[in-house]
Amino acid sequence: MKNLSFQFKKVLVRVDFNVPVDKQYHITDDTRIQAALPTLNHILEQGGALILLSHFGRPDEKRKEDGSIDVARFTMRHLVDHLSKVLGRPVQFCDELTGEKPAKMAAALLPGEVLLMENTRFLPGEKKGSEELAKEWAALADLYVNDAFGAAHRAHASTTTVAKFFGPDAKSFGYLMEEEVKSGKRILEHPDRPLTAIIGGAKVSDKILLLERLLNLADTIIVGGGMAYTFMKAQGGTIGNSLVEDDRLELAAELIKKAADRGVKFLLPEDSIIADQFSNEANHKTADSNAVPDGWMGLDIGPKACKAFTEAILASKTILWNGPMGVFEMPNYATGTKTIAEAVAKATQNGAFSLVGGGDSVAAINLLHLQDQISFVSTGGGAMLELLEGKELPGVAAMIK
Ligand code: AMP
Questions:
Q1: pLDDT tier at 400 (50, 70, 90 boundaries)?
Q2: What average pLDDT does the segment 258-287 reach?
């Protein structure tokens, strides 16, 4: 970004404005818009004009009964007022993605002006990575900036193909994208040690590649959340009605063995908060995670696990956290996730680098208002997960090629 001159330039910026909205289309969480502001404001302050492209929801999957796109529901127009407010200037809206209308509107833009384009996913060419579509979008602008980290793992027309039509001196990552990639690479390539990875969430199957990768990278792996019970069962524990993936038992045992062979500490929750129903109002108590009685299920890590995990976290210099420790959406099972979040915040305060990303742990951090106490909270769930798994992200690769 710093090497590009934006003055008098029209800049096509791919942002990730896929924000949650309520039934009246009011934005309920504008984190993604806020995260793009440093890039957008920089370009505007330098005297550039913005042409913004983003997807919003899944219009191609949630079609109307007659099979057509539900424009009223998925239009980017819902974002215009809010965007005008946060940018402190009017935002023009173009309800067509190709043809004369966007070409004319883009050509007429003056420095400091902003044009928001309609939802990129209204056109099938977006997901197909269409060259024709990308070329048409590229023709609207002099420069291309990609700040949509959340969509960087998709080889779509606006995230990847379009970059082809700009030379190396006419395209750049935005500030958010740069921070995201730098933070992920810091973990993968030059972490201060000890490096502790905290992996939670519902399923082992979603995190296999990440766990495999971490076995070659981390000093300590902490496993919590629903996925911990598959590991418990794999070691011969009784887990009652806890979440389990019976087809992953062998894999779980193998991961534990590999960790031991490589000298990686593999911490599972010694105890759990167990409940007799999947409900906040259910009877609940503490039990050993490998001795959950029939009819009961583990819904959070217990006090001994909280203590052991906190100690490991506080002894770390680099921390990666992906996935909650329990059903944190229900207050009675949120203590484990809250305790771990606070430990990560404290370790960060003591000088550790912490990255929270790739799943529901970001929601947990936001719920606890700890965003400012973590070194970096990723905005890109799936994209960060893939980056940490060691995959090449097409949206990143296209900018460098
Ligand atoms: P993920 O998207 O993989 O990060 O998983 C997050 C989901 O896992 C959250 O909705 C949690 O409620 C859920 N979860 C965490 N721990 C448990 C558990 N012990 N049993 C069932 N679900 C859980």
A1: confident
A2: 98
Give, for 196, the enclosing helix (H) or strand (E): strand 195-199
Query: Is 269 touching ligand 1 by the criterion CB < 6 Å?
Result: no
Predicted confidence (pLDDT) per residue in 83-96, tens digit:
999 999 999 999 99
| pLDDT at residue 359, rounded to an integer | 67
Indicate the burial class of 351 (C-beta count within 10 angstroms; 0-12, 13-18, 19 or more). exposed
Candidates 111, 163, 112, 169; CA nearest to 137 is 163
- Ligand 1 neighbour 342 (Cβ under 6 A): no
Give the mean model confidence (pLDDT) for residues 251-260: 97
CATH number of 181-388: 3.40.50.1260
Q: 288 exposed, middle or buried (CB, 10 Å; 0-12, 13-18, 19+)?
A: middle
Tell me how far apart the alpha carbons of residues 221 and 379 are, in angstroms, rounded to a whole number: 23
Which CATH superfamily does the domain covering 10-173 fall into? Phosphoglycerate kinase, N-terminal domain (3.40.50.1260)
Instruction: Determine the distance separating the centroid of ligand 1 and the alpha carbon of 225, expressed in angstroms.
Output: 6
Q: Show me where the domains of the chain are located.
A: 10-173, 181-388
